[in-house]
């Protein structure tokens, strides 16, 4: 289990497997939607983040690919991610807590400047973190 996923499971109140998948989905969303350079630096700085994205939001995973296609069709952006996380059983409070905890940890690993660049490059994200 990834240390950040364990932290999120404990702080947000999610089952460990759910926290790990949700974190992978959130990081994968950021990888697709945020400024390429900043998000790459952020994900590389978080231990195990690249593996979580590959495992839980990779193109080889049918749900990840289908979710990605559905987001591209019309439910994209932050709202599309919210829909995907709700489909995993998360409520709005848990999604907000997941986002805040993920960004707080990213700041610890990658620094404020990099994370601010990521957050500011995704329309609507700043209101959730």
Percent helix: over 70%
Beta content: under 5%
Overall number of domains = 1
Specify the number of helices.
8
Q: Please report the distance between the alpha carbons of the first and last residues.
A: 24 Å
Assign an overall shape.
globular
Q: Radius of gyration over alpha carbons?
A: 13 Å
Provide mean pLDDT, rounded.
85
Largest sheet: none
Low-pLDDT residue spans: 58-74
Beta strand count: 0
Succession of helices and strands: HHHHHHHH
Helix- and strand-based class? Answer: mainly alpha
Could you please describe the fold and organization of this structure?
With 129 residues, the protein is mostly helical. The protein has one domain (3-121). Helices cover 78% and strands 0% of the residues. It contains eight helices and no strands. Helix 5 (62-75) crosses helix 6 and helix 7 packs across helix 8. The chain is globular, with a radius of gyration of 13 Å. The two termini are 24 Å apart. The model is unreliable at 58-74 (pLDDT under 50).
